[in-house]
Amino acid sequence: MPFGFYFRRTFVSFGDAGYNLAMPKILSILRHRQIFLLWFGRLLSAFGDRFFDISVVWLSVQIVGSEAGFILAAGSISSFLAGLIGGVLADRWDRQKLMISIDIVRATSILTLPLAAFLDEITLIHLAIAAAIEGALGSLFDPALQASLPQLLEDEQELQAGNALIDVTMRISQIFAPGLAGFLIAMIPVQHLFTIDAATFIISGLSLFAIGRKFNWRPEPSAETAIGTQGVLAEIQGAFELVRQHRPMFWGILTYIPFNIAWAGSMMVGLALLADGPLDAGAQGYGLLFTAYGIGSVLGNIVVGSMTIKRRVLMLFAGQVVFGVGIILVGLSQSFWMAAVATFLAALGTPMADLMMLFMIQSDFPASQVGKVISFRFTISNIGYSAGLLLAAYLFQWLAIRPGLMFLGILILMTGLVGLIRFRSNVDQNPIRSA
């Protein structure tokens, strides 16, 4: 039996609700007014986020040189610390009001930077505080956003496409925002990228406000809801117990530790070492490899988001297998273009895994728990990502560049294969939601 036929039968359907070459599902859902407004705000703020990162790095380099990375670390640490709290807020408060409030605070915080630059008083501490605030608020915003999508898109296939649309928007900004920022810096002072970023958050808040109040923005309080620190901790523990009862979800979230170790080690460190060393492609080559990854991930989101997935759990682990194979091929690449094709292939696996995970959270758990489960996944991912960055230096010293990349690829390949074998007979259900 041809593999393509088996893949379609097992994982996907190409019927009327399936993939449409003329109009991918993630584009067709923009006909919904609420989704267009949400997407438009996220598109602008995604570009604004990239402008913020570029501006912080540039100004920090001007002040402290090579130690500028510590400023970005402030944002990463605050993002990690705020992760689980963001889920609690998303499951307790009105999500529309929460997101609008966060956008307002973001815009206000960021506007202090161009003002300080105008007064010639911008400092490293100011940049670090702004980065920390931005990182923390992002961790509060994202769970509320993703927990709101099931209320804005009740059809399951459209919900899957909505997740893909939001994700592909973020990835598009990663591809095109750096070039656009360079173009703008040639015309305006770099600090005014902060001004543009603040304006995107204002527009995002207005877009959220324009969606209106006809949707159910506030989840029903769960029985475990309580006030104070103990109440927050009890909610987090309760969400963890729900995840633990959902065996495929629990295993899938745990695999995000090796997955993100492999992703951070290979994409953030390994590709740079490969481009600078064996491939002799330099910084430009590293950028082009990342562009190949970005294009692959965008294409993967469009395709996966437009499919009707029959076996979501298996698709999740199949995505890990595809990513692992791609990274192994990167390590085996003897030329730049071979590495670019392999990076593109690896990127196709990430939406297969990420979109299935997010959709399972939104569809399998009660609305009052979705935000916390999303935050739990986010926290686990951060642990893996941070560990990958810390371990990468030792790994590539021990195994050299190509063997190190192959080791990371094999790590996630084996993780995905174990998941496929363990849950090969799993039939997608909603065990927690229906409980």
In percent, how helical is the residue content?
over 70%
Strand content: under 5%
Q: Sketch the topology as an H/E string, one letter per element.
A: HEHHHHHHHHHHHEHHHH
| Alpha plus pi helix count | 16
Instruction: Kindly provide the name of the CATH class of the largest domain.
Output: Mainly Alpha
How far is the first residue's CA from the last residue's CA? 39 Å
CATH architecture descriptor name of the largest domain: Up-down Bundle
Which oligomeric form is depicted? single chain
Give the class from helix and strand content and strand pairing. Answer: mainly alpha
Which strand order does the major sheet show? 1-2
Give the integer mean of the pLDDT values. 81
User: What is the number of E strands?
Assistant: 2
CATH topology-level fold name of the largest domain: Growth Hormone, Chain: A
Relevant CATH superfamily of the largest domain: MFS general substrate transporter like domains
Query: Which word captures the global form?
Result: globular
Question: Main sheet?
Answer: 2 strands, antiparallel
Radius of gyration: 21 Å
